[in-house]
């Protein structure tokens, strides 16, 4: 890494990516870098500071990532050689999403210095593993993040791209067809008896898909990041079409957006 001033942009639905970003920040600081963490859902991509080294951290979703994260990447400004690295977190496998992302960033003029895919506990499961297993997977993932950050500082990283296959997987998994079919089969719902009208779900939603009337009201742009489901204090939110078990790896104030006006 030539430029040791780092801006790390991340999105985390349930805390895994937050833990990874936080550990990387710690390692960068120990290695005499300056580093700022920014939440992707609060930033206009066109306005980012392209004088610094840039990092992106995001969760894998359906062998790709959430459409709003892809939108963020596609709206990044073009540059002349700004260093960039990425890290994604996933339950099992990503479909090689870092490959098409590398192509996009290169086309925009970024210098791609390293990418890492980190296995963390899945936040999209019908039944969860034991607490012990979850802690082990999380600890291993955070350790991998630590090594990756260290390797970035000392220029030991790679950005592997599986040609063709990863592009096909990305274009299928990001296609409107896939997301529209998901919407038909899986949608967030509210149990009004359990809901205490606290508005936390409204504040947590990264894509403004929840409006607060008397009760929270879901629009049709849910991207299934799991935040509202994971942090609802009374378990009033559920998904029609799939029965999921709750998972979170950070406290609510660590993933919470600033209060909306
Ligand atoms: C809607 C959805 C789809 C997912 N799809 C995948 C997937 O295709 N492959 C995978 O390995 N993990 C998948 N996961 C698991 C997450 O990528 C993983 O748990 C991630 O670390 C969550 O990060 P976060 O806690 O920062 O939101 C999915 C999770 C969600 C909510």
What's the quick description here?
With 261 residues, the chain is an alpha/beta fold.
The hetero compounds bound to this protein are: flavin mononucleotide
Radius of gyration: 18 Å
- Distance separating the two termini: 40 Å
* Biggest sheet layout: 5 strands, parallel
Number of domains in the coordinates? 2
**Can you write the helix and strand succession as a string?**
EHEEHEHEHHHEHEEHEH
The helix content, as a percent range, equals: 25-40%
Strand content: 15-25%
Task: Output mean pLDDT.
Answer: 93
Query: What would CATH call the homologous superfamily of the largest domain?
Result: Flavodoxin domain
Structure report:
This protein has two domains: 167 residues, 3-Layer(aba) Sandwich (Rossmann fold); 69 residues, 2-Layer Sandwich (Alpha-Beta Plaits). It is an alpha/beta fold and 261 residues long. The protein is built from nine helices and nine strands. A hairpin with a 3-residue loop joins strand 7 and strand 8. The strands form three sheets. The chain has a five-stranded parallel sheet with strand order 2-1-3-4-5, with helices on both faces. Strands 6-9 form a two-stranded antiparallel sheet. Bound molecules: flavin mononucleotide (FMN). Flavin mononucleotide binds next to helix 1 and strand 4. Flavin mononucleotide (FMN) binds next to helix 1 and strand 4.
Features:
alpha/beta; 5-stranded parallel β-sheet; binds flavin mononucleotide; Rossmann fold; two-stranded antiparallel ribbon; about 260 residues; Alpha-Beta Plaits
